[in-house]
Design brief:
This protein is an alpha+beta fold. The protein contains eight helices and seven strands; from the N terminus they run αβββαβααβαββααα.
Amino acid sequence: MASTSRPLEVAIAPLSEAELRVQLAACYRLVAHFGMDDLIYNHISVRLPGPEHHFLINPYGLLFSEINASSFVKIDLDGNKIGKSDHPVNRAGFVIHSAIHSGREDAICVLHTHSEAATAISALEDGLLPVSQFAMRYMGHMGLHDYEGVAIDTDERQRLIDDIGPHNVLVLRNHGVLTVGRTIPEAFILMYYFEKAARVQLMAQSAASAGSRLALPKTEVSEKAARQFHDHHGDILAPGSREWPAFIRLLDRLDPSYRD
């Protein structure tokens, strides 16, 4: 029986700033919990409701595991702080995140990591391959941005916008990966499974270097699987919509201080 496709554009209820702060803090804690953080570096940002295009970003100097809902610095697209904060904002974080937030109206959450597996994949000429089902959702749905040095020059912003295009994943060559979500849970799940796909690929390639052979599916099969994920065939939902409540239960058991 032919699978049915669900429309990509689904109604997403807007959240208040207070609700977004709690979700964003949860996202930081989850990235740390799953080992995808990089000390005090990397960033997850969320655009706040309203026409001002203000967004929240982490204070420069805190570990992801320390962040809570009241930690964030509110800034505008020019990097100016909105309200009082004693914390600075990382320059590269401002450049990368302000680019995507300004260039993509649907970019409510932007998540950037330097996780080991994703960074290793970013350094491979062929990038992420359809080695596993984890990787299939990204086939044909990734942008690629060449390394230009530490992202502290504002003129790189337009190239970041151009390179991500309509996609929700941007591979940053020799640097890491960036995901975009219409919600915070969506951006997190896209990052979580990119990292998982990257780890599986590196393990398979390591085995292949010892004499085994990679068994890659036919192109048409990879394309079919990508459509199933991207168009929400069957009971596949938007990334994060089904998983997020379980993650919140996990965090509340481990350390509910992210809510403070």
